[in-house]
Specification:
There is one protein chain. With 202 residues, this protein is α+β, with helices and mostly antiparallel strands. Helix content is 35%, strand content 34%. It is built from four helices and twelve strands. Strands 1, 2, 5, 8 and 12 form a five-stranded mixed sheet that branches. It is elongated, with a radius of gyration of 36 Å. The termini are far apart.
Length: 202
């Protein structure tokens, strides 16, 4: 039996059967935060290994108060009918703060990928998780809705000022261009209007 096994292994060796890499040999991933609070993620692939572009997924776990604003990705190439990375790709991820808070935050970054060997073996999809610290003071904030209320208040004040200015200009025009009797009647009319307005408010 041992002789048969030895003969079989010798036959496989002589035939030059391909040696497939283990997943940790074929793919080596990393992720870190640079000085601009961007996440730089890399997938180093071994020789004769390629990655499917559509299988690459970069995510921030929920609950961190951050979201991905943009991903700068390298250009993929057509390979065996699919868009793929045949050299080790690097991704630069821009983050955005959801609540505008400053300080260091711990985030969970997920990097998903799938690749194949040129010898014909395709690996199953993998997801690697990284615990990273991000300085949120360097990030932009997406809390634009919080700015709408002050903007509306300013708009209302501007409209009110415009109305008050129009009334003042109207009175000034009356005084400037009318006779004494017309001026008295005008102020009498404004007095009646103010009296009626105050009664309504009460």
């Amino acid at each position: 039996m041992n002789k048969l096994l030895l003969l079989f292994l010798s036959f496989v060796t002589l035939m030059g059967a391909p040696k497939f890499l283990m997943p940790e040999e074929a793919f080596k991933t990393s992720a870190e935060v640079n000085e601009n609070s961007q996440i730089v993620a890399k997938v180093e692939i071994a020789k004769d290994i390629y990655l499917y572009q559509e299988a690459i997924k970069l995510e921030i776990a929920e609950g961190s108060g951050l979201k991905i604003a943009n991903i700068d990705s390298p250009e993929a190439v057509e390979h065996h009918g699919d868009m793929a990375y045949v050299t080790s790709p690097t991704f630069v991820v821009d983050l955005e703060s959801l609540n505008g808070s400053d300080g260091i935050k711990e985030v969970e970054f997920l990097l998903s990928y799938q690749g194949c060997s040129e010898q014909g073996l395709c690996y199953e999809p993998y997801t690697d998780t990284f615990e990273l610290k991000v300085d949120t003071s360097k990030l932009s904030s997406s809390t634009s809705s919080a700015e709408l209320k002050p903007l509306d208040v300013k708009t209302n004040e501007a409209q009110k000022s415009s109305v008050e200015k129009s009334e003042t200009d109207m009175i000034a025009d009356v005084i400037k261009n009318s006779s004494t009797w017309m001026i008295l009647l005008t102020f009498f009319g404004f007095g009646l209007l103010m009296f009626g307005h105050n009664r309504i408010l009460k």
